[in-house]
Amino acid sequence: MIKVIDVNDNKPDIEVTSLSNVVSEGSKPGTVISLISVTDKDSGVNGKVICSLSENVPFELKPSFQDNMYSLVIKRQLDRELVPDYDITIVATDLGQPALSTSKTFNVQISDVNDNSPEFSQNPLELYLVENNAPGASIFSVSASDKDVNDNAAITYNIIRSEGAQQETDMASFLNINADNGHIHALKSFDFEKVKTFQFQILAEDSGSPPLSSNVTVKVYILDQNDNTPVILSPVISANGSAEGVEEIPRNVNAGHLVTKVRAFDADVGYNGWLLFSLHEITDHTLFGLDRYTGQIRTLRPFTETDEAAHKLTIVVKDNGNVSLSASATMTITVVEPKEAFAASDVKSTVNSEDESNVTFYLIITLGSVSVLFIFSIIVLIAMQCSKSTDYSSKYLQDPNYDGTLCHSIQYRSGDKRYMLVGPRMSIGSTIVPGSNGNTLVVPDRRRTTGEVR
Q: What is the pLDDT of residues 199-250, one digit of tens each?
């Protein structure tokens, strides 16, 4: 009988039984993805095998109830957006001397789950749109990205509309968006003078199940164009659209006298609304000058006897747009003698004085009402004070010789009786009529033994 002793001359053999080579990123930790079977033809210690995995993978090997059987399970949460697949290397090493080992590598794909919402690169978005845009033309484009793939990353776009009564004033109702590419079209032409800015929201939604969405705010700023002609406010504009005015000045004014000021308005803003004034036609260039910035018309020199009585001026107002727009006004300046000018000024001052007199009249009425109310309050207060005082004049008769000073008393005795005279202090020269007891008070004598009166 010859017994052959085993020598460690066989490497371990690895067999991988994969349930699936694609693993969903939504799989929970502990999920089994493969079964690993390891065999070694050697016996004894030479046939004992230890398995290990490559580092930095979210998987681990768990021994089975059978020898040399392992389960490959998920160790932590997977994220396809970070790592879409893994190359897993399994190393099997026996315990022989010297040890022999075998490795096997296989790939695991991570499938996508709709766990990411569409994202815009910026929120809010700003759109600068020049007014008078062509209706129906594309004015803007939005784009969102989704980290998912396939249907989970297929995005559609929609404009969020207002509901109810606000829908009529919602500027988003005049916009339309291509659901596939995010191109926005304006259905109307915008006017800077009516709407300068507005905002609306766009919803981006993917095609996952369930779908995820996000929105972005688009702020629209309408830019001005030079599309408004200056309007001359003074002189008064006539019905046919031209401006015409008449001014009268006295002949004796000096140089630099303010004749009038041309007032104009432009609905545009910035340089498009910056107005400049100029004289295009004038009967005498030496008499009048126009300030190009303020529109003030002043005399350049005093009038002479040879100067005409009427002067016609044509004033042009231009804006500073790229394509300048303008308006014109015709003014007639009449030179009159000082008395006539004063009469004309009196008429104007009369109109102004009438307005001032009306204000004065209402002011007088108000002050009079307040004064009457104050006097009435004083009268009522005096009457109330008088009603509280007691009238003593009916109880006592005033002595004709009373001079308004304080009362005093005089005591004297006649026989067994004691008398006290009570009355006002007499003035100098007054006398007491003998035998008159009008002011005498008889006081009974209470003295019995002492003869003392108190």
A: 999 999 999 889 999 999 999 999 999 888 898 887 654 434 444 567 888 8
Burial (CB count within 10 angstroms: exposed 0-12, middle 13-18, buried 19+), residue 27: middle
Task: Give the rounded percent of residues in the chain with a pLDDT score beyond 70.
Answer: 76
What tens digit of pLDDT does each residue of 147-188 get? 999 989 999 999 988 775 465 567 888 899 999 999 999 999
**pLDDT greater than 50 at residue 437:** no
* pLDDT class of 28 with cuts at 50, 70, 90: very high
Q: What is 231-340's CATH number, 1.10.287.3510, 3.40.50.720, 2.60.40.60, 1.10.10.10? A: 2.60.40.60
Ramachandran class of 270: left when φ > 0, alpha when ψ lies in -120 to 50, beta otherwise: left
Full strand arrangement of the beta sheet holding 138-141: 138-141, 183-186, 175-177
Total-model pTM: 0.59
The identity of residue 73, as a single letter, is V
Token duo for residue 25:
């990123």
> So what's the pLDDT on residue 16?
87
CA dist 258 → 290, 302, 315 (Å)? 10, 12, 16
Instruction: Show me where the domains of the chain are located.
Output: 13-111, 119-223, 231-340, 394-454
Residues 212/114, Cβ–Cβ less than 8 Å? yes
Residue with tokens 């004709």: 400
Asked whether 214 and 143 are in contact (CB, 8 A), the reply is no
Evaluate whether the domain defined by 119-223 bears CATH number 3.30.70.920: no
pLDDT (0 to 100) of residue 398: 45
Q: Which CATH superfamily is domain 13-111 in?
A: Cadherins (2.60.40.60)
Residues 6 or more apart in contact with residue 256 via CB below 8 angstroms: 298, 299
Rounded to an integer, what is the distance from CA 254 to the centroid of its chain? 52
Helix and strand totals (H; E) in the chain: 1, 29
**Are the C-beta atoms of 74 and 59 separated by less than 8 Å?**
yes
Coil, strand, or helix at residue 378?
helix
Q: Say yes or no: do domains 119-223 and 231-340 share a fold.
A: yes
CB 170 within 8 A of CB 161: yes
pLDDT digits (tens, 9 = 90+) for 372-403: 888 888 888 888 878 765 444 444 444 444 44
Strands in 101-111's sheet, in edge-to-edge order, are 22-24, 101-111, 85-94, 49-53
Separation CA 267–CA 224 (nearest Å): 10
